[in-house]
Each structure stands twice: as structure tokens, then as C-alpha cells.
Amino acid sequence: MSNAPLSNETVHRVSFLDKASLHIPILRVLQADGTTYENAVLPVIDQDLAAKIYDTCIFTRVLDERMLGAQRQGRISFYMTCTGEEAAIIGSVAALDQGDVILAQYREHAALRYRGFTTEQFMNQMFSNEKDLGKGRQMPIHYGSKALNYHTISSPLATQIPQATGVAYAQKLKGERNVTICYFGEGAASEGDFHAGLNMAAVLKAPVIFFCRNNGYAISTPTEEQFAGNGIASRGVGYGMHTIRVDGNDMLAVLAATQQARAYALEHNAPVLIEAMTYRLGAHSSSDDPSGYRSKDEEAKWQQHDPVKRFKLWLINKGWINEADDSKAHEKYREEVLAAVKVAEKIPVPRLDEIIEDVLEQPTAVLKKQLKELKEHINKYPKAYPKSAGRL
Asked: Does the pTM of the predicted model rise above 0.85?
């Protein structure tokens, strides 16, 4: 889709368009058995890149398993898994340059890990201790890292979409040879910020990749109850931008699509929309029970499309890994994550005074008054605030 003038074609009888008028194919490269489709064009990938991608897959699965368990034990308050969507997230971030900026939703911790976020940094954030880069001000899994060009996550849906357009437009104005990628789910695409962000990017020609993880549900709301159109991809075409729909459980297809999307965004200083069709194998969050809105049969069907298993089979077929190496890597990360949990949960929370620092050069009188009242409240009820009571 180009930014050409509107069509001058005329007709002389009423003829409506509908969602069937736009044909949107889905890109697939890798089959479920780990072989590629005949005539499929592979992305640029070598053994080192493949190894890094798969190592990130293993770590992410282990982190999800361990930290969901930690939440159930009451050690952290909240968690969200990436399970089932690893190809969409890791396959896309692997196509980027380290200087490209990431604005995530809340299920993209795999992208942060790929960039180099350490196990200790994950734990410090989830336990909100004094080593947390966010100083304990965010709920668990709301990561951020200036060093890794990963904007801090916010809970409200879709706020990152117009922000991503602004970041990418700034890159363009500065003459930087980098792009911005913005992750969001199809549920977030129902927010007004989605439409404002995409239209602004298309009009201003900002080099941003809008990456939609269409995982079938906005918490408990299935896609058929969210929109009546042809998915999210049709909206990209409607806003006049290059658009592609890809199998979000196919690591190679996602990698190929994002590599070419990045090249296009840089060459033309223009946005691209990628819709990755995937499935959330786990619950929406640790507060959710998916059995209330989807069947076990549906989940079992999608287990057959496990993106990590599919990529693993491709690696085995290439002779780049074997089952023994795979088992060893899983066990290594299980031990590493568990050890990091035990350390992070014993580190004190930040000093209470830090709650009013960093935002303004000098805290206002109102903030100081509120901090004083907070300290008085905690001193009065120290048993209700065991961690903060010792950090006044």
C-alpha cells in the first residue's frame, strides 16, 4: 500500500466494499514438524543467531514457570506469562538493532531478555527491592531499561502506541538510523490511542513497526466479540501503511517479516504494521482463570502449534542442537532463576524518601507533607507494613 492519491476510478451503480474485498494472506515458513514449506524464503539467520533466539526461548519458559509458582506461593504479588507467544516476541526483537527502541505492552519480557536483561534484574524488579531500576514504583513485570532502549511498561492499554510514533518521529528528525517497535495485543487495538497513533505515524512518516500480537483474547473477550472487520491488518492498509499478517507461532516467518519491515521503515522513513496470529497458552495473568471462557479442547489444539517446540525441531533438523543440550539448558536456568529468587526476596525495599525523588528537581511542599503523613501512618501501624516500616 503506497501513499498514492485516492483512486479516480468512477462507477455508475452502487457497489459497496466489505471485509472480503481485501485479501490478506498469512506468511508461513516453518511447519509444525520443523521442516520449511516448499519454496519458502528463509530470513537471514545463522547458527549463532539461532542459538541466541532459542536460549531466550528456554529462559523465558523457565522464568514463566518459576515466577508463576512464586506468585502462587505469595512471594510476589502478580505475574504474566509469555507462554505460547515466544515466536512473535523473540522472532521480532531478533530482527532489530540494539539501538532500536522498544515500547512494550506487558508480555514482552522475552524481548528484554534477548537485549541482555539479567536474571538478577528481572528478580529485583519483581520483588521491588532497592536494586530495582524502577525503585520499586511499579507492579511486577512492568520492566524498563534505559541502557537497553526499552521504555518502562505502563498498565493502561495502548498508551505506548502514540508514544512510539513520537519516539520514531524524533529518531527521524535527529537523522538516526534506527527504528522503534511497538508491541500490543489485539485488545489494545480497540483503544482510541491505537487509531491516533497509527494515523499520526502514517501522516508524519515515522519509522515505527507496530507489532500486534493477535492471541485470540483480550483477557476473557474473544476476537469475534472485539471487532467485525478483517483482523488488525486491514486497519494498517486503511491508514495507508505497509502491512503484513504472519503466523505468530512461526519463528522464521516472524523473523523474516520483521527484518524486511525494519529495512522498509528505515529506507522510506515510514511505518509498518505486522499482525502476528498466535495464542496465549496460559492465563491472561496470575489473577485470571481461563477455564471460565475457553475449553480444554481449544487449549489442547493450540498446544500442537507450540512455537518453541516447532523452532526446536528446526534446530535439531539442522544439527545445531540435540536433546541433551536442551535438557541441560533448561536445568541450568531453573537453578539460576531459583537462586536469584532467594537472593532478591531478601534485599530491602527502597528507602521511603525515594518515593518523592527523581520526578521534580526539588520535591514540593505538598509532596513533603504527604511523605510526612505517610511515615506517621506507617509508624502507627508498623505490623501492616513490615517491609516499609524498617525503611523510614
From this structure: yes
DSSP helix, strand, coil percent of the chain (3-state; round to 5) = 45, 10, 45
Closest CA to 202 of 164, 240, 170, 238: 240
Nearest alpha-carbon partner for 169 in 157, 153, 180, 154 = 180
CA distance 188 to 200: 17
- The per-residue DSSP string of 125-151 comes to HHTT-TT-TTTT-S-TT---BTTTTBP
Average pLDDT, integer, range 236-263: 98
Beta bridge partners of 273: 210, 243
d(CA 214, CA 224): 12
Place of cell 514457570: 65
Task: Name every residue whose Cβ is closer than 8 Å to that of residue 311 and which is 6 or more positions away in sequence.
Answer: 30, 34, 53, 54, 57, 87, 251, 252
Q: Is the dihedral of CA 29, 33, 35, 39 positive or negative?
A: negative
pLDDT at 54 (0 to 100): 98
SS3 35: coil
> Whole-angstrom Cα distance, residue 291 to residue 264?
42
Q: What is the pLDDT of residue 20?
A: 87
Contact between 199 and 236 (Cβ < 8 Å): no
Give the Cβ contact number of residue 198 at 10 Å. 27
Return the closest-CA partner of residue 136 out of 148, 152, 150, 147: 152
Q: Is the pLDDT of residue 379 over 60?
A: yes
Q: Which residue has the cell 492471541?
A: 215
- What percent of the chain is predicted at pLDDT more than 90? 94
Identify which of 207, 210, 165, 168 has the alpha carbon closest to the alpha carbon of residue 185: 210
Phi-psi group of 141: left, alpha or beta (phi > 0 → left; psi -120 to 50 → alpha; rest → beta): left
Task: Identify the band that residue 36 occupies on the pLDDT scale cut at 50, 70 and 90.
Answer: very high
d(CA 100, CA 95): 10
Amino acid letter, residue 293: Y
Secondary structure E strands in 186-306: 208-214, 217-218, 221-222, 242-247, 272-277
